[in-house]
Amino acid sequence: MKKQIGFLLLILFLAVPPAYSKDRVVVVKLSGAINPAVAEYVSHEISQANAEQDALIVLHMDTPGGLDTSMRQIIKKIQSSQVPVASFVAPSGSRAASAGTFITIASHIAAMAPGTNIGAAHPVNMMGGRGVGEQAKAMEKKVVNDAAAYIRSLAELRKRNAHWAELAVLNSVSISAEEARKLNVIDFIAGDVKALVMAVDGKEVQVALGSITLQTKNLQIVYHEMNPRQKMLDIISNPNVAYILMMIGMVGIFFELSNPGLVLPGVIGSSSLILALYAMQTLPINYAGLLLILLGLILFIAEINVMSYGLLSVSGVISIFLGSTMLIDSDDPALQISRAILYPTLGLTVVMSLGIVALATRTRGLKKLGGMEGMIGETGLVKETLNPKGIVLVHGELWNAEATTSIAEGEIVRVDLVEGLKIKVTHVENSKTG
């Protein structure tokens, strides 16, 4: 009997959620678009907080949206977390749009600062998918319905306003913090993290292992940020940075191919292009646009070797322009290339590329100054009478020479042909030396 009672007590002990006795709240700063680097960062912080049994994780958020796959990765991590996760849209002027709306709804606690907004969660904005025709419309409808069902299930799980959440997806509605609180979209309005931590003290939340009551009063608040590697990946995942890197890479490689042996442009170009290609794996890229940009590079290279009177260069400019405007396949401003970046970068790239083409073409037409070919057209002094063979001094060197007529010693001759170690010359009139 005692063994049975002990066994039952052991089961009850294991069934009770772990005590969250850590004396700190971890604040994870999340700013900008939701991309794979941000998803990796947030997932790592949630795992670390669970391993250390912290009292609370606060996602201090200001985001215009981002990628659907990255958003779902973060939400899955929130749902499996044993430590409560609070999404806090702050400071004033911030927003949780698109993917940020899903993350806020999915969190154990949802809070906003005064002067912030939430909503506009239409899935086309997160996934790209521009297109026309019945097939495109059918695909968009499937994506919208899937996203609507997803956000409704998240809202129902957290006992929030599922109807409004669905409207945020279907109609891209957006509301202020005050409206969100009245409509039961969020739990609290707080001025800062300290106010939020005080507000959630004593609140009961449902985590993966069951219900727990938060005890956050007087706890230490610790702010975490991305490590250098994650910051770098986040920076290059920005569409504007990715586009600039791609243009630098193209110009660098083009310069190296048109002037072999310079090395530095090739190294910089290759490195930039590799980083750009990595970034494009995290963005909704239109591959037709990418191929048009690469075609433009090939046309510029061809212009150096083919006399097209500028036709290939013009075609290259048009190809790069069309490819650049088509490159990002998304309607979400957070995932698009800014026009203030696109046009100056495109213009500078085209000007530099045309300059390289002009320089390479001009250099190709210049007379070679070194080697055997550099001898042709040079003048020399007859050191031994040419009759028709003799010795001529050219560039301080004595050469076996041959002429069609007899030329006396001391006369000036011009080199017409170089054949191995022998040159053929002709007499320069009125050139007798004293």
- Our Rg estimate from Cα atoms comes to 36 Å
CATH architect. name of the largest domain? Alpha-Beta Complex
What count of structural domains? 3
Spans of at least 5 consecutive residues with low confidence: 1-21, 125-130
Describe this structure in words.
This protein has helices at residues 2-15, 36-51, 68-79, 99-106, 124-127, 133-157, 162-170, 177-182, 193-200, 228-236, 239-258, 264-281, 287-305, 311-326, 339-365; strands spanning 24-31, 56-62, 85-89, 95-97, 109-112, 117-119, 174-176, 188-189, 204-207, 210-213, 220-224, 379-384, 389-394, 397-403, 412-419, 422-427. The protein is α/β, with parallel strands linked by helices. The protein folds into 3 domains: 18-230, Alpha-Beta Complex (2-enoyl-CoA Hydratase, Chain A, domain 1), CATH 3.90.226.10; 238-365, no CATH class; 373-427, OB fold (Dihydrolipoamide Acetyltransferase, E2P) (Beta Barrel). Strands 8-5-3-2-1-11 form a 6-stranded parallel beta sheet, sandwiched between helices. The radius of gyration is 36 Å and the shape is elongated. The model is unreliable at 1-21 and 125-130 (pLDDT under 50).
